[in-house]
Amino acid sequence: MQFHSTRNKETYVSSSQAIAQGLSSEGGLFVPVSFPKADWESWKGLDYPHLAQKVLELFLTDYDKEFLLKAAQESYGERFGGKAGYLAPVAQGTYALELWHGPTCAFKDYALQLMPRLLVQAKKNLGATEKTLILVATSGDTGKAALDGYHDIENVEIAVFYPDHGTSEIQRLQMVTQEGSNVSVYAVNGNFDDAQTGVKKVFGDRTIQEELAGRNIRLSSANSINWGRLVPQIVYYFAAYFQLVEKGALTMGQKANFCVPTGNYGDILAGYYAKQMGLPVGKLICASNKNNVLTEFLETGRYNAKREFYRTSSPSMDILVSSNLERLLYHVCGSDKKVAEYMSRLAKEGEYTISPEELTAIQADFACGCANDVQVAQEILHQYKDNGYLCDTHTAVAFKVAREYGEKTGDNAPMVVLSTASPFKFPGDVLEALDQAAPEDDFQAMTALEQFTGHKAPESLACLREKPVRFTAVIDPVEIADVALGTK
Ligand SMILES: *Cc1c(COP(=O)(O)O)cnc(C)c1O
Q1: What local confidence, expressed as pLDDT, does residue 169 receive?
Q2: Which residue segment(s) compose the domain that 392 sits in?
Q3: Using a 6 Å CB cutoff, which residues line ligand 1?
């Protein structure tokens, strides 16, 4: 399989190159030149790593198949406690695809456990000997998932920057207690945007890049625009579907709907790829929080990022520019020129509007909805009281949107809600939603949530209490460049 940029379909690259490079030189994202049609029915009954191998080998054709299997086994075996792609029944016709049984308790583990292995192998495939320096600005989840994935990976260093006082206490401790000889973590004075802007400046600075190149170091990013982060997420749509068949919720070939709590449009787009590969997916339902730029887009065709930014109880979805939407635009309009024009308008004017035909094509596959924090809290309570199901704030956004979709359309195909984080990652918000007093301290809240629900907090979160803090530096955004150059 070859890949080209969403903004230039003249130049082709291999999958190794797409993964090693991340972003195309003119700013576009890499997409596969076609959707591989798969004999997917024959995959039923495979364990998760073997299923992953089947999906990965269709896209990563310059990787050895045995390598892909081994990488999937190392990523999704023990580290997910045997629960990779686990589908939990919630209510009649409704299921939760629990994607938070990995080491950092958020779905990003699916991509970030595998991606480091893909990157190391990509460099081998390309004969590249340079050291990779990964810089990550994070509002919480991505930073820890990337640290866990990249620690002690050969010839890679990773530095993570989070806003000082801008993450939850648990998220902060997950990062500053990270083990490994090739990792570093910095608090940045300012908010997430300040950290992000500081990192972007380094990526855009030719002098820094040349200085590093002289030392055989190449900068790279771990965020979700890399194809290597998207492709692992296709796998669990297949895994969920086969479990629906096994449970007798549908027969092979009947359609299932998926509702996805969405930020950067990476997770839901993986479902679109699964559908293009032949999986019987009905609607992919895009669930947003109060930052509902995608709801407006999917309803009207107008993407308008010029709006107030809200901090919500589902922080990993607090996003106004959803990078992966660019890939969908390309697949729908098929024109690199048009995508480049939309993206340039977005950069210059903060908005763009697609044609009515393009909107119709998108609406054939995607539905949408949104929920504010009050509705999220109500939904957590409803799911717990009426279905005995405990969910986190992000997943609750999707439960609410999925329910409304069913009521509005009468579509009664089985509904799979992607559950993207453990409720114990946000214990205070979840406790309050359950009408319980929430202690200020996150660990006390974790204990209180355990006592109230009888569920056990994941060990990787509970053990943070005892872990030594390794990183205490607080820097200014301009100093991110010094970190990259190794002078800080
Ligand atoms: C990142 C994240 C999301 C959003 O996923 P996208 O691929 O960015 O759309 C949703 N929920 C949680 C818990 C996340 O960490």
Answers
A1: 86
A2: 84-107+230-456
A3: 106, 108, 141, 224, 261-267, 316-317, 394, 420-421
